[in-house]
Amino acid sequence: MRMVLSALDTYAATLFIVVSLTIFGRKLYLRIRYLFLAKGQERRWDHVPTRLKNFIVYGIFQRKVAREWYAGVLHSFIFWAFVILGASVVEITAQAYASGWQVPTPSIAGFSLNGPLYLAEEVIAVLGAVGVGMALYRRYVIRPKKLMHEGMLDATIVLLFILGIVTSLLLYNAADIALGSAALPAWKPISSTLVRLSIIPADPSWWHLFWWTHVVLLFSFLAYVPHSKHMHIIFAIVNTFFMDLTPSGAIKKADLEKTETFGVSRVEQLSWRQLLDGYACTECGRCTDACPANATGKPLNPMRIITNMRDTLDAQGAAILAGKVEGLPDMFETVHSKEGIWACTTCYACVYECPVMNEHVPKIIEMRRHMVLTQGEMPPETRDAMRNIEQNFNPWGIGWDQRARWAEGLGIPMMAEATSAQGIEVLYWVGCAASFDDRNRKVAQAFARILQKAGVRFAILGPEEKCTGDPPRRLGNEYLAQTMIMGNVETLNRYGVTRIVATEVLQFLTYHDACYLGRYNDVYEEPRDVLYRIPGVRVVEMEKSRDRGFCCGAGGARMWMEERGEKVNHRRLSHIEETHANAVATACPYCLIMLDDAAKTKNREDIRRYDIAELLDRSL
Ligand code: SF4
Ligand code: SF4
Prior knowledge:
- The chain is mainly alpha-helical.
- The protein has 4 domains: 7-240, Fumarate Reductase Cytochrome B subunit; 267-374, Alpha-helical ferredoxin (Fumarate Reductase Iron-sulfur Protein, Chain B, domain 2), CATH 1.10.1060; 380-502, no CATH class; 510-619, no CATH class.
- It has 25 helices and 8 strands.
- The mean pLDDT is 93.
- The structure holds iron/sulfur cluster (2 copies).
- One iron/sulfur cluster binds at residues 290-293, 300, 302, 344-350, 360-361.
């Protein structure tokens, strides 16, 4: 017997679907419209093949979600349920207009693919339900801290919607089979089992009830999605296509020719891609969970930067559209406090962990730029460091003419004095820390000795070398950063330098991964390779290592700022203590200073601190 819906059913269903689609479309339209309010420039249409690859790897196959296996499994069940059940949604809804209609599929040698499609739908419906069960168990029994925020209710509503949709699909199929009206029942084994077990009777009113339940849940869910955080279902996948393809963490140069304001203080000053982050956010809390500043009690919550930006856009979008921005609260009131923005070490852990490729650090830098360049504000303790860079081209404030003192007696030529007979092939870029910090000077000496033993013909710039501009740039002082960068570029061009070696690039106990070497440059194994080869050294890993390494606390110009509450470097020292290692090696001068400081302050000088170059120099 073929089941047919009445004309009244068709009218009622049509009305319901039209209203749901209107609610869905209106909100979606508004959100997209708000994206176009963005004034910041962003070019993300280049390198289409790479973008497509990222879209498949990170969007469709959700590689980053799977960094946590439990979340990876449950998300993949739910995600694929959405994808595969798309066909059944159309087919079941179409019953209101054409009884018995089936999704057209190609047939191979006379064999219709509808059967395998039904089987896939049944299996994925069950897996989708399992995924929902796992998600509810995680939220209500495991209760990881990162998920315990006010988004719980929304997440629960969405999960129950999904559970209702997949369950009503199976029940509808079962009622259809029981009445003998289903197409290809042999391909619907789970629904058939429900009939065999007499769970679903052959009763048209059950069939009718399940059809309506399925359709109402489906279209209510559709109307609900763009109003909830689950609009990431639509936008997250888009975000992966438009991810940043520049070298990890490269900070965009600010156009200082502009005469208006610098940096951002209002959401519409961000770029469309920055705003898209808000819609793509799943509120999974991974960014905040990985944040060293948050872990040590600083008022910084990277997830809030993203979600508050989205909510601000939502709240202010209509006024911005109407051009009535005067009097609207700025981002320091609605998105994140200034104190929190200054607490960031720019360690990149938040960006690295984000499964949907959101970019927290550029927003933080832009907000800092606004404070420094437009409002003339920066933490008072950083003023000395910035003044030192202006006057002596290094944050330590030691005379610029002292830069090469560490090299005295080592027979290292300077570029200005090198003769062509010396055949200089490489410039050793020493950096401020290795030039001026006593502890790191020893590292520079060790590194130079290694180069000499290796027969590398190298020279240094000596007093002509200047701060790279990295600390002022990360602090938001773009003007000073560009002044330093331009000075250095001019010097390098003058000497025609084509090859530079810095202490950090050497392949390199327990090993502390520097954020800028690791997450920014993907260098994890090379330093370990060196350590593994040093006789007498046994390497033990900290739990937070490699791409999950925990910041030392110095990045983002935090080295020059006061730190209140628990110190990030003290927390890192506790990670080292957990390994019971009696030495720690690193490959970054700033990390070395921070680890040194932590060991001294916490009376753990028995844990020796080395740069990897020193260990290698000794072993050679
Ligand atoms: S860059 Fe590091 S310190 Fe800054 S918000 Fe992200 S995780 Fe936190
Ligand atoms: S920004 Fe990314 S990591 Fe942070 S909560 Fe949103 S989706 Fe998760």
